[in-house]
Amino acid sequence: MSLTRQIKRGVFWVAVSTVSMKLLSYLAYFVLAKLLLPEAFGLVAGANLAIDALQLFQEMGFGSALIYRQEEVEEAADTAFFVIIFTALVSYAVAYAVAPWVAQMASQPDPHITPVLRALALTLVMGSFGRVPLVLLAKEMDFRRRLLPAVLSSLAYTITATLLAVAGFEVWSIVIGRLVSAALQVVVVWWVTGWRPRFRFVPRLARELFDYGKHIIASQILIFGITNIDDAFVIRTRGWAEEGMYDLAYRTSNMPATQITALVNQVMFPAFAKMQGDLATFRRTYFQALRYVSLLVVPVAVGTVLFAPDLIAAIDAEKWGGAVLPLQLLGIYGLLRAVAGNMGNVFKGGGKPRWLTGIALWRLTTMALLLYPATLRWGINGVAGLSAIVSVVDFFISGTLANRVINSSWRDYAHILLPILGYSIVSGALGWAAPELASLDRGVWALLLGGSIMIIAYGVLNWLGQPGLRAQVRGLFRQLVARRRRSSQDVG
Questions:
Q1: What is the C-alpha to C-alpha distance for residues 341 and 438, in angstroms, rounded to an integer?
Q2: What are the two backbone dihedrals, phi and then psi, of residue 200, each rounded to the nearest 5 degrees?
Q3: Contact at 8 Å (CB) between 450 and 435?
Q4: Which of 91, 124, 195, 359 is the most exposed place for a label (fewest CB within 10 A)?
Q5: Cβ atoms 405, 347 nearer than 8 A
Q6: What totals of helices (H) and strands (E) does the chain contain, helices first?
């Protein structure tokens, strides 16, 4: 199978997996937001700070190193498997020990945070058993077999957490749901994959994996600090309730970055790793991915900014009203993070993982210097605004460096992004005005009507204004028709 076809198949199966999983996840999140108080989400977000930090050290960049590696893959996979499990056990011990300290981090300490953190940290150990099998499936771009574990675990969380929340388990409905989801994912991963580890550990391979992975983990540690230092300041200065509102705003506004772009990234890094000696194909594939990602993430981000008040009103404006402005400001952050997300794969696939470290370092330094005064003066609105400003600067730095790797220019980006942004703004304005013309109160019905109008208008504008896109859609349609005809002939 050609690499191009592998990429298309990979994007398709990752799309099916991600869309299914995240629809369930966001459905559960908004249902739980109606049932629980912001403090419950704040407690879980606080526990996640410690768990996510430990998870960085648990893998040590071995996953990316395995995908990049071309020789002695089986031996390296066995070595990584046992290293990751060992570091997961160490990470859990650390999480258990530091839980009381995390409980004292907030301006308003809550006794629930210690047991919540210790319980959620079990997901570190559970997940370690499935990490290498998932990485190997990604390396071979066999994303179809990754579909079932992702969807079933997400469904398990949705059902478990929702039922327990209705039963009055409060924050523990989220915790138990996460534990059930993590356990089920590992079971299903081992069921669908044919890989089994051999009991061997090769120190030389461990050093080689770490030599590549150290650049990844260094940048990931810095990125973790960048993406979580805001939560730490909010918890410390504003308390668990405002952290819960900030968490809702961040999750919703970052959906393009954390879901749609992550979907493409799962496929593109293994693909870029295979293109190391073909710069022209590398560049062409990168900009094709940028176009497809932008077609999805730009209208989602514009819609998030415009319809944020309607979304919060649909959940519960009385409990969550403080999340509206942060949601709109973080919509800008989510947009630029999504569009720039694949630039990191350019650095890794182009053999420049150390550049990720430098970019992340300046972002973390900037955030660390400015977050405290921004939080004290403007609360979560100041945190969200600062994140938006930093994301703009980061986009231009990352783009400039990516251009050096693939020998491109900003004109290439403008050619792709400006028409999509223009169509998104026009269609979003039409969607926002529709409920006003229909005299609807801002809320769930305004969200449904306005969102529908925006989607239709956006599709029409792109169809009329982008001949290349029309040609691609027609070509895809012809391929589907031809495939159906061949299938019918085979059956006959």
A1: 38
A2: -150, 145
A3: yes
A4: 195
A5: yes
A6: 19, 0
Half-sphere exposure of 255 (CA within 13 A, CB side): 25
Q: How confident is the model over 330-348, as pLDDT tens digits?
A: 999 988 888 887 787 788 7
CB 275 within 8 A of CB 349: yes
Nearest one of 342, 255, 301, 354 to 7, comparing CA atoms:
342
- How big is the chain by its Cα radius of gyration, in Å? 23
- At 418, the pLDDT band (50, 70, 90 cuts) reads very high
State the DSSP string of 415-462.
HHHHHHHHHHHHHHHHHHHHHHHTTPPTTHHHHHHHHHHHHHHHHHHH
Fill in the DSSP letter of residue 275: T
For 161, the token pair is 């957490």
User: Taking the alpha carbons of 467, 469, 470, 471 in that order, is the dihedral positive or negative?
Assistant: positive
Amino acid at residue number 430: L
pTM over 0.85: no
Among 36-50, 259-273, 412-426, the least confident range: 259-273
- Distance, in Å, from the CA atom of 115 to the CA atom of 186, rounded to the nearest integer, reads 23
350 Cα distance to chain centroid: 22
d(CA 79, CA 206): 6
Q: Output the CA angle 170-19-251, nearest 5 degrees.
A: 45
Helix (H, G, I), strand (E, B) or coil at 146: coil
Q: What angle do CA 386, 225, 234 make, to 5 degrees?
A: 55
For residue 109, give the 3-state DSSP assignment: coil
